[in-house]
Design a protein that fits this description.
Length: 85
Amino acid sequence: MDNFNLRVVENGYIISYEEIMDEHTAQCTKVEFLVEDNEYDEFGDLPKKTIEKVLYKVAELLGVTFEPLKNDNLNITWDKYGQAK
C-alpha cells in the first residue's frame, strides 16, 4: 500500500486504499473500511471513540501492530489537559 484516503461520510469515516493483487499484471483491488460513528465513550462522547478507532486503523495500515507482551504499544487516551497557544 503506497497511500490511503480518509473520507468523512454521514455515518462515520471510510478509509480506503488499493491493494496489489498480482505484481506481474499490476492488478489492484480497492479495499474500504467503514468506521461507524455509533459507539459512545464512558462520558457519552461519540466523536472521540470514533476518532480513536480511525487512528488505530490508520496505525495498523502503516504497520503498527499490537504486541501483547510489549509495554510500548500504541495507546490513545484523552486524559491530558491542553495548553493555550
